[in-house]
Amino acid sequence: MTTEYVVLNEEAPDPEVIRRAGRIIKDGGLVAFPTETVYGLGGDALNPASSKKIYAAKGRPSDNPLIVHVCRFEDIEPIVRSIPPQAAALAEAFWPGPLTMIFKKNDRVPAETTGGLDTVAIRFPSNKIAQALIDASGGYIAAPSANRSGRPSPTLARYCMEDLDGRVEMIIDGGQVGIGLESTIIDLTEGEPVILRPGYITREKLAKVLGNVGVDQSIIKPDSGIKPKAPGMKYRHYAPKGELVILEGSPDKVVAAINRAAAKDREKGIRSGVICTDETRNLYEADCVKSAGSRGDEESIARELFRILREFDDEEVGHIYSESFREGGLGQAIMNRLMKAAGHKVIDLGAD
Ligand code: TXA
Ligand code: MG
Q1: Of 156, 184, 245, 261, most Cβ neighbours within 10 A?
Q2: Which strand ranges, in their side-by-side order, compose the sheet holding 272-276?
C-alpha cells in the first residue's frame, strides 16, 4: 500500500484532511497521528479487523492490549461496565491529557482490541489534531505508539514513516510532540487505584486527587520476576541497536568511568556513544555525545530521550553509555523507559 504523508497545523487542522483521515479509519484502515505524548497508530477500536491490522502493522504480539482514545468524557460510558467514582475526579484534573484509565469493558469493545482482557484502557488526549481525528472517526480510536514493536516510541512523524511506510494508509505530521513519554496508566478496576506505567502525570499529582495510589510491584522491582499488570510492560522496549548501559554515581565518577570505557572501545575499533546533559556534555571523549537537555529541565530530558535512542541507530555506535536520571518528578517515568532500553544493565559506581 502507498502511505500518504500530510502535514497539519495543530492550531488549525485542515478539516478536509481530518474528514478524509476519519473516513480511512471508519472504513477499517490505519492512520498514524500526533498526540501530546508520542505518535499513535490509529484504527477503529470497535472493529476487530482494525485491531488485527494494528498488531500486524506494528509486528506486535496480540496479547498486548491497545489503548482506546476518546474525545469526550461522556464517551466512556457506552463502552464500560461501570465508572468508578475516582474516574470523574481524575478526568476533571488531568483530561484531556497524558493519563490512561483502566475500566471493566462491556461487549461493544472487541476482545481483539483488549488482547483478550475483560478490561479496557481509555485516554482522552489533549492534542487538537488527535481530538479532531477521533471525532471524525466515530469516537473510538485504538492506538498504540506508532513504532514497530520493540523500537522507541515516535516523537516525530519522520519516525512513523521510518517504521510504518507502506503499512498504513496515512501518516499525519503535527510536528514534534510536547511530552515525549507515553501516558501514565492507572488501573481503577480493583479497589485501590494502581499505577501500571509511570508517565508525565506523576504519583504525587495523582495522590493529590485520590489520596492513596499504589504502584505496580513490577515497576518498583523490575528484576524481581513479578509479572506486570500491563501486559506491554513485560517486553523489552526501545532497545537501540548498540548495547546500552546506565552508569550511576557521583558525576565525577560517571564521567571518568565512561571516558575509560570509550577509550577501550576505541582501541578495539568500536564506536561509542554517550547520553548526557548540558552540564556534562563537554567532559566526554566518546565518538558521539548527545545531551538530552539540562538537568534542571527534566521535561526536556523526557522529550528528547526517544529521539536520541533512535539517532544512535543511525550513528552505528556499538556501545552507548548513559547517565542516570532518577531525580525529579519525572525521574520514575524516564528511568522506567531508559532501564528497558538498557535491558536493566546498570553499573553502580557509588556516591563519591
Ligand atoms: O501515550 C500513550 O499512551 C500512547 C499514545 C499513542 O496515546 N499510546 C501507547 O500505547 O503508549 P501502547 O500500546 O504503546 O502502550 C499501551 C500500554 C501497554 O503496556 C499495554 O499492555 C497497556 O497499555 N494496556 C492497554 N490496555 C490495558 C488493559 N486493559 N490492562 C492493562 N494494561 C493495558
Ligand atoms: Mg508502545
Answers
A1: 184
A2: 288-291, 272-276, 319-322, 243-248, 346-348
CATH number for position 311: 3.40.50.11030
Residues 41 and 145 occupy one common structural domain: yes
Beta strand spans in 84-215 (E):
99-104, 119-123, 141-142, 170-173, 184-187, 194-197, 214-215
pLDDT in tens, 187-200: 999 989 999 999 99
Cβ–ligand 1 distance for 231 under 6 Å, the answer yes
The number of domains in the chain is 2
Q: State the pLDDT at residue 163.
A: 97
Distance between Cα 271 and ligand 1 center (Å): 35
Range(s) of the domain holding residue 210:
4-215
Mean pLDDT of 74-79: 98
pTM for this one? Answer: 0.96
Q: Do 88 and 191 sit in the same domain of this protein? A: yes
Residue 151 lies in a domain: yes
- Assign 225 to helix, strand or coil: coil
Say if residue 350's pLDDT is above 90. no
Segment 214-270, tens digit of pLDDT: 999 988 887 777 888 888 887 777 888 899 999 999 999 999 999 999 999 999 999
Residues 31 and 159 in one domain: yes
Residue 258 neighbours by CB under 8 Å, 6+ apart = 247, 274, 284, 286, 321
d(CA 233, ligand 1 centre) in Å: 9
Same domain for 176 and 49: yes
Q: How far is the CA of 267 from the centre of ligand 1 (A)?
A: 43
Burial class (CB in 10 A: 0-12, 13-18, 19+), 75: middle
Look at residues 177, 196, 215 and tell me which one is the last residue of a structural domain: 215
Task: Give CA–CA dist 280/288, Å, rounded.
Answer: 14
102: Cβ below 6 Å to ligand 1?
A: yes
